[in-house]
Each structure stands twice: as C-alpha cells, then as structure tokens.
C-alpha cells in the first residue's frame, strides 16, 4: 500500500516569540504536516517551543526529532506529554532516541551510560509511554540493530538516520530490510521517515553540503549528492526524487530543517 506523503519541519533555533509564531504559522500555511523540535542543549527547548506553537496553529501536528530518552524519567516525561497532547487538541506525536552526545550529558551533570544501557532505557521509556498514551504515535529514530529492532516491534514511525552502518551497496535498503524482518506482520502499518539534510536555496539547484558532510567527511561531492538524504535540481526534479524514494523504499515521511522551508514548500506544492 502506498502511503500518503507527510512532511516535517524541524525548528532548532529562534530569536523571539514573534519569530517562532511566524515560522509555525508559515509551516502550516505552506502544507507542512508536522512541526518538530530536536533535543539538544543550546538549542530550542522542545516542550515550551511546541506548546507555544500549539497555541498559534490549528492543524499542523507537533513532535520532537527526537527526544534524548536518557535525559528523562518515564513518569515525568509522561506528564509533559499528556499536558502537551491536551493543549494541542490531540496533535502530538512523540519522537524518541537513545541520546549520543557525551558532552551534553556532562553539561547536564548526568552520567553517560553505555550504548547498551541507553537502548535499555529507551525500551523501558517506549513501553511506559505506549501504555500511558496509547493514542499518541511514537517515532523511534536511530540506526543500530538493537534500536531498529525496538522501533520495528514497538514504534509507529521509524526514523531512518541514513548513516552507513556497514559496507553495503545500498545502506538505506539494508536498514529497511532489517526493519521489515524485525517487524514481521507489523511492517505494512509502519511509517518510514528520512531526514533530508541538504536542499538547494530557492534560486539554486545544488545544495550546501556542509551539514551532510559532518557524517560523511571522506566522500566526494558527487558521492554526497547521490545520498538519499540530499536533494538537488528544480522543485519538480526534487519532487520526482521523493516520489522515487517512496516507490522504491516505501519512505513517505520526510523531515527538513527550517532553513529549507521556502524551497521545500515548492516541492510540497509539486506533490499536492
């Protein structure tokens, strides 16, 4: 079954209340389906930002891409989720990840657990939230086998980070095949998400590749431009690229940074 496209806009920073209100309302007007906030020290605080966005919008859904589960205790996070879901009239989705930036744990004066312990806590958090908020969709984003297995078996949305986990010809296909095997009969109901890390400016066809290069420093420009998370060309060409990703891989949910709002809105217009 071909799933409808959904498009998310991630807000990492804003300078004022007015700026946040403007981008939230513009995202809704331009056809974005989800407004999300990451969870990093030094960036926007997820719950206050999303609550403010909920107060000035009507249709756009609200999420996190993604909460660092290791920063929270389940009952306390559950309280905030319940409040935001109520204040947004049921528009909330929850994004979860293990957390990975050691320096942020140190700045928060929290111990930095082992990778295995962080996955264990994510599993516990997912189970708790699913029990207490059964109507709130859960996304789990990551790349490793344990996280992808957890996502396949318990999440509603799979966040595919696009990182290359081993030397395979098509890492995205490999990760999706892994999720399919782990999910079993659940797979057809799952929504697959991919973050788009590079989009050209409205008057250009080649994107700035600096963000993408952080995770692929050794690749040539040609190789980076060929990555699934990178878009190039005209809005029509980029729309065709997303159609191709949906047809080949089943990925129908795409998230971009808010600095790409204008040109990505042109792509949305081509697809609707």
Automatic annotation (TrEMBL):
Residues 18-198 form the Luciferase-like domain. The keyword DNA repair does not apply. GO terms for molecular function: monooxygenase activity; oxidoreductase activity, acting on paired donors, with incorporation or reduction of molecular oxygen. Keywords: Flavoprotein, FMN, Monooxygenase, Oxidoreductase. InterPro entries: Diverse_substr_monoxygenases, Lucif-like_OxRdtase_MSMEG_2516, Luciferase-like_dom, Luciferase-like_sf. The keyword Oxidoreductase applies. Pfam families: Bac_luciferase. This is F420-dependent oxidoreductase. It comes from Mycobacterium asiaticum. The lineage of its organism: Bacteria, Bacillati, Actinomycetota, Actinomycetes, Mycobacteriales.
């Amino acid at each position: 079954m071909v799933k409808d496209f959904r498009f998310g806009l991630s807000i990492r920073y804003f300078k004022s209340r007015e700026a946040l209100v403007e981008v939230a309302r513009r995202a809704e007007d331009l056809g974005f389906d989800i407004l999300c906030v990451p969870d990093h020290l030094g960036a926007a605080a997820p719950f206050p930002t999303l609550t403010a966005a909920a107060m000035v919008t009507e249709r756009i859904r609200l999420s996190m891409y993604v909460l660092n589960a290791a920063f929270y205790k389940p009952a306390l996070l559950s309280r905030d989720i319940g409040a935001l879901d109520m204040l947004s009239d049921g528009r909330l989705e929850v994004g979860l990840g293990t957390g990975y930036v050691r320096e942020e744990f140190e700045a928060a004066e929290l111990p930095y657990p082992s990778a295995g312990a962080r996955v264990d806590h994510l599993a516990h958090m997912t189970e708790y939230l699913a029990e207490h908020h059964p109507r709130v969709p859960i996304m789990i984003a990551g790349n490793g086998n344990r996280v992808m297995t957890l996502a396949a078996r318990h999440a509603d949305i799979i966040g595919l980070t696009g990182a290359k986990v081993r030397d395979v010809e098509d890492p995205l296909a490999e990760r999706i095949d892994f999720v399919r095997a782990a999910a079993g009969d659940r797979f057809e109901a799952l929504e697959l998400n991919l973050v788009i890390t590079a989009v050209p400016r409205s008057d250009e066809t080649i994107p700035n590749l600096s963000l993408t290069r952080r995770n692929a420093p050794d690749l040539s420009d040609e190789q980076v431009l060929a990555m699934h998370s990178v878009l190039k060309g005209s809005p029509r060409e980029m729309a065709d690229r997303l159609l191709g990703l949906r047809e080949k891989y089943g990925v129908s949910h795409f998230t971009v940074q808010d600095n790409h709002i204008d040109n990505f809105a042109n792509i949305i217009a081509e697809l609707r």
